[in-house]
Amino acid sequence: MEYANLLLEKNGAVAVLTINRPKALNALNSDTVTELSTALDELGRDSSVKAVILTGSGEKAFIAGADISQMKDFNCMQARRFAQLGHSVFRKIELMPQPVIAAINGFALGGGCELAMACDIRIAAENAKFGQPEVTLGLTAGFGGTQRLPRLVGAGLASELLFTGDIIDVNEAYRIGLVNKIYPLDTLMEEAMKLAKKISSRAPVAVQLTKSAIQRGVNMDIDSAQAYEAEIFGLTFSTQDQIEGCSAFLEKRKPAFEGK
Ligand code: CAA
């Protein structure tokens, strides 16, 4: 499928999804969020895709936020719908089967930081900058920032970032656990691809069930979450990959996983 504001490429089992509005620093208008929804559905259905990399076009921005020129004239109803659209589409990232890696190549502000936080793993370039500057515009964060930032970095740090609108550099983002790794900008995509390929080489059903346990379990009480983990652990013992993985270990060879 062709998209106006996205690029979707496949490299073996890895899909690279690029938000492509570089003139607006990849700002998210409703058309782009709607296209993202369609692309995520397409990828979620594609069993040949084992991992996804999400990034922004150009060398300056991952995503500089929701599109301020579109939002400026919203009424309350339109703003609420826009937030609900963002919520439902970003949640698809958490609930789709494949792991999604955010490769953050510059500004990740507002909706851009929120989109990165909805991804399973965040790696960033040395020029990346993060923040939730909505209060400087007279708004609150609207694509999940008030909920995911406290879950990721704790309520105290999240409150400071959300109340001040301060923008932090990549070293501070790394220090507070917002990103896992920092790379030079010119090697970021190569490193993202290496990570995505490593994940793709693991038993696909086990990886997908692990994602499900993390994403669903994080919102459950510990007993329900452990019961869910026991279920999915049991499920892996109905797969060929479990037989292959354990046999390969005992036979001292590399496993050949087929994803079934
Ligand atoms: N929406 C719309 N357009 C944007 C944009 C945004 N979020 N961010 C940047 N742009 C546009 C600029 O208007 C500019 O367009 P023109 O060339 O047509 O003037 C172009 O992108 C380049 O931007 P700048 O000239 O501003 O570039 P800069 O290097 O001087 O500054 C920046 C970069 C610090 C990221 C600055 O662009 C900026 O502060 N952007 C807005 C960041 C922001 O506030 N994001 C939060 C949005 S609200 C939100 O996201 C709500 C939510 O949770 C749902």
Automatic annotation (TrEMBL):
Keyword field contains Signal? no
Among InterPro entries, the record links this protein to: ClpP/crotonase-like_dom_sf (IPR029045), Enoyl-CoA_hyd/isom_CS (IPR018376), Enoyl-CoA_hydra/iso (IPR001753), Enoyl-CoA_hydra_C (IPR014748)
Q: Which UniProt keywords apply?
A: Lyase
Which Gene3D superfamilies does the UniProt record give? Answer: 2-enoyl-CoA Hydratase, Chain A, domain 1, Lyase 2-enoyl-coa Hydratase, Chain A, domain 2
Q: Which GO terms describe its biological process?
A: fatty acid beta-oxidation
Pathway as given in its UniProt record: Lipid metabolism; butanoate metabolism
| Region forming the signal peptide | none
- Write one Gene Ontology MF term: 3-hydroxyacyl-CoA dehydratase activity
Reactions catalysed according to its record: a short-chain (3S)-3-hydroxyacyl-CoA = a short-chain (2E)-enoyl-CoA + H2O
Give the EC number(s) under which this enzyme is classified: 4.2.1.150
Binding partners and assembly? Homotetramer.
Protein family according to the UniProt entry: Belongs to the enoyl-CoA hydratase/isomerase family.
- Which protein are we looking at? short-chain-enoyl-CoA hydratase
